[in-house]
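Readers of this paper often ask what the protein records in our data store actually look like. Such a record has a labelled line for the sequence and another for the backbone structure tokens. The tokens are whole numbers drawn from a learned vocabulary of local backbone shapes. We quote a single record here, exactly as it is kept in our systems:
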Amino acid sequence: MTMQVVSLVGAFLILIAYAGIQRTWLKPQSKLYALLNLVGSLLLLWVAVNDRRMGFILLEALWALVSIPPLLRAQGERANA
């Protein structure tokens, strides 16, 4: 049951990010967009590792890695401002 809740929360976070882009509530460069994707993908990665689903492990690990650079750029821009 716990894994189902975690997977639903992870999927929901990624879908919120996607909907935010589609509805122009968020910009692809925004920190919130990257953070929603990162947290959502890490939750789904945890579920995939627990279930030993290699395809999903690869997908979610790469999704999380792709979400990190925009967060680091946003943090660096804030430090330079």
